[in-house]
Amino acid sequence: MRVVMAEDDPLLREGVALLLGAEGLDVVAKAGNAEEALDAIDTHKPDVAILDVRMPPTHTDEGIRAAVEARRRHPGLAVLVLSAYVEQSFATELLSGGVNGLGYLLKERVGRVEEFLDALHRVAAGGTAIDPEVVAQLFTRSHQDTRLDRLSPRERDVLTLMAEGLGNSAIAERLVVTDGAVHKHIRNIFAKLDLSPTDQVDRRVAAVLQYLEESRRAR
Amino acid sequence: MTDAPAISKSKSTSTSTPPSVPPSPPRATVRETVVRTVKAAGAAIAQLAGGFATALLALGVLALLAATALTAPIGVGLLLAPLSLRALHALAGRERARLDRVGPEVIAPEPPPTRLRLALTDATTRRELRWAARHASLGLLLGFLGVLLPLSAVRDSTFPLWWQLLPKGGTSTSIGIGSAHSWLDALAVLPLGVGWIAIILGLSPAMARLQAEPGRRLLAAGPDIDLSLRVAELTATRAAALDAHATELRRIERSLHDGTQNRLVTVTVLLGAARRQVARDPDAADELLERAQSAAEHALAELRSVSRSILPPVLDDRGLAGALSGLAAECAVPCRTDVDVPQRCAASVEATAYFVVAEALTNIAKHSGATRATVTVRARGGRLQLLVEDDGRGGADEDGGSGLTGIRRRIAALDGTLRVTSPKGGPTRLEAELPCG
């Protein structure tokens, strides 16, 4: 898998590149700011671009804007955005154009190599990877929605993992239950939240995120 | 800002000043009345004497102004004009401070403009001139009486005790009419002294009020001077302070997120990579652990520098001068400090000054090859001026990772200015100016 990486901190950039290299990924270009990243993406047409959110010159949301721009130039490009902290508006802006092939993770998740590689592969394959923190924030902000209260604790866990972009078997593995149990939970969740049932992961993610987002706004 | 606490200055009510004598109880005893009257008279005399001193100065300033006006046609006056205007403003300021001490506060108007043409038509300057004229005439006379009356009172009321010691013919009353040749004559002077005392007790508070009146009226901000201007100015200053504060917080947030946090993320990334390598290639894993450790040490160093940059503890302990001489002592290049800052500045300003000098000295030690450095700090007109010089090879470059960018950013956050001159071959001069806040 060919990767373009943009991160302004040289030590961290080298660290992540080192890790990816050791895991057999091909880091074809490393960039220190958004403009370099866009150039590298144009040149190398990678399978996935990993972008830091805060980069020079303003250190605010360069990475998000670069991600949106890169996907405008190259529809279907997989982009994984790494952020120092979860900012709901970043997530909303990033995911507003669809969740296929998109990831939004906290930087420190990279250290959990196995899960990080999972997420990276999922995104590169057109799936989704949303940081649990994003989902948790959506949950806490929409806690006044009574329909969420109808969910059992286990169903909440499943909903969170679904929103993060995990498929049924991955959820089953995380929660150490059978695929069948997960399937049952998901049917219940969709019923309780009035969502139309679907098996496609990206549509599920979109549905869940949309639901959480709406219930947050409706408050 | 001329005098920051002007508006909210509180004043303790003193029983000794005439304007603020507490309301008399319904039936004051004779003793209380006497004590109060004597105290009031004493305070009034002291006030009159103080006013006498500023009245003499006012006379001097008026003479200077007259000389300026007279010599203006031949050019000398034009050179004298700024000096005499400054003298007038300084004296007016001194009188305001004096009146503040003895009564209700005199709210100062905007400081007058310093440019000659503007100053001549400035309302404040004109009011100060009118005050000077009155104070140097009526105020001087009242002040003179205020000094003379007590002397005469003492002299005449004690006259019978010592009149015989005087040479014949020189024994007159204090007003110079009549001379004493016998005990009877001498005793006759006594009522005169008692009269003086009565005048002092009865009239001196009114005289003190009369003497202070022009100052209270003319030196305060006039009705034509809109205080809303001052309010607007204070609001703007406060907004700027809040703004600087926000910028400072943003700087701290940024150095935490983009510096320290990135170091820690690097640590977790390297640890994660090492864990994956342990089974496959222990040597490679060990190398990764080594890098992770050094990244963690980096994180600690950055955390230290961030927290120091917020407010170096040494500033609280030893003040700016002490903190800077501490920096100079630690510097690898021999460094002399010369700090003359009479008052403490705002904490954020001192912290920035400290940071700037620390960074500059680090640069000098690392890059300049200098054999000596000097740090000069002055407070002038509400601004803190920093000058860091060395005799090194110069050529300091903002893009060379020399920390100059950081210095510039921190100074800009406080609305200060920075000038660096560093020609190839040296020497390097770093000049910074910060509002004291």
TrEMBL record, chain A:
Cross-referenced InterPro entries: CheY-like_superfamily (IPR011006), NreC/VraR/RcsB-like_REC (IPR058245), Sig_transdc_resp-reg_C-effctor (IPR016032), Sig_transdc_resp-reg_receiver (IPR001789), Tscrpt_reg_LuxR_C (IPR000792), WalR-like (IPR039420)
GO molecular function, one term: DNA binding
Domain HTH luxR-type stretches: 144-209
Post-translational modification 4-aspartylphosphate, affected residues: D52
Chain ranges of the Response regulatory domain: 2-122
Stretches assigned to coiled coil: none
SMART domains: HTH_LUXR, REC
Keyword Transcription regulation attached: yes
PROSITE patterns for the chain: HTH_LUXR_2, RESPONSE_REGULATORY
Protein name: DNA-binding NarL/FixJ family response regulator
Species whose genome carries this gene: Streptomyces pseudovenezuelae
TrEMBL record, chain B:
The Signal transduction histidine kinase subgroup 3 dimerisation and phosphoacceptor domain, residue ranges: 248-314
Comp. bias intervals (Low complexity): 1-18
Pfam name, any one: HisKA_3
Disordered, as annotated region: 1-30
Reactions performed catalytically: ATP + protein L-histidine = ADP + protein N-phospho-L-histidine
InterPro entries: HATPase_C_sf, HATPase_dom, Put_sensor_dom, Sensor_HK_TwoCompSys, Sig_transdc_His_kin_sub3_dim/P
Origin: domain of life: Bacteria
Gene3D superfamilies in the record: 1.20.5.1930, Histidine kinase-like ATPase, C-terminal domain
Enzyme class, broadest EC rank: transferase
Domain Putative sensor as annotated: residue spans: 48-219
Residue ranges of the TM segments: 41-66, 72-92, 136-154, 186-208
Listed SUPFAM superfamilies: ATPase domain of HSP90 chaperone/DNA topoisomerase II/histidine kinase (SSF55874)
CDD domains assigned: HATPase_UhpB-NarQ-NarX-like
UniProt name for this protein: histidine kinase
